[in-house]
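sorry for the late reply, my laptop died twice this morning and i had to redo everyting from scratch. anyway the thing you sent over, i finally got around to it. pasting the sequence first so we're on the same page, its 148 residues, then the predicted structure underneath. double check i copied it right bc i was rushing
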Amino acid sequence: MRSVETTGPAETESLGAELAGVLSDGDVVLVCGELGSGKTTLVRGAARALGVGDPVTSPTFSIGHRYSAENLTVTHLDLYRLASLDDEDPGLLADYVGPGRIAFVEWPKDSAGELSGARLRVTLSHRGGDRRRIEVGPAGAGGSEDSG
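ok and here's the structure:
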C-alpha cells in the first residue's frame, strides 16, 4: 500500500499519470472516495499519460466514457447510480472492461463478475482545502467496494 498527500489538482493529476505507467492492457482500477475527492482528476491524469487527447470528464450521468488512446481504449465508469451490479444486465460493462482497454471504475459496487479481476484500488479522501490523501494498493486490499 502506498499513501501520498497531494496539495492540489495538478499533483493529483500527476499521481494519476504516474499510476498509468504501471498499467497494462486489460487492467481495471477501482477508484474510491467521497464526492469531490478528486477521483475524476486522478483519472484525467492517468488518461492523459496513456495518450488520451480528448477532454476527460466525469461520467456521473451515464455509465461511462470511452476514450481512444495509444494502442488501446481508456474507459472511465461511474457506478454511483447503481444499487448493485447483481441487478443489472450481465453485459453492462462489456464495452468498458477487457482486452484492449484500461478501465477506471468510480464507485465500484462489488467485486463480482467483470470487476473481480481488478488490479488496483485507489482511495482518495479530503484533507482540507485542495489537499487529498491518496492510497494505492492491490484491489483486494481493504475498504468497502461501495465506498465510491
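The two ends are 18 Å apart (CA to CA).
thats about all i looked at so far, will dig more tmrw
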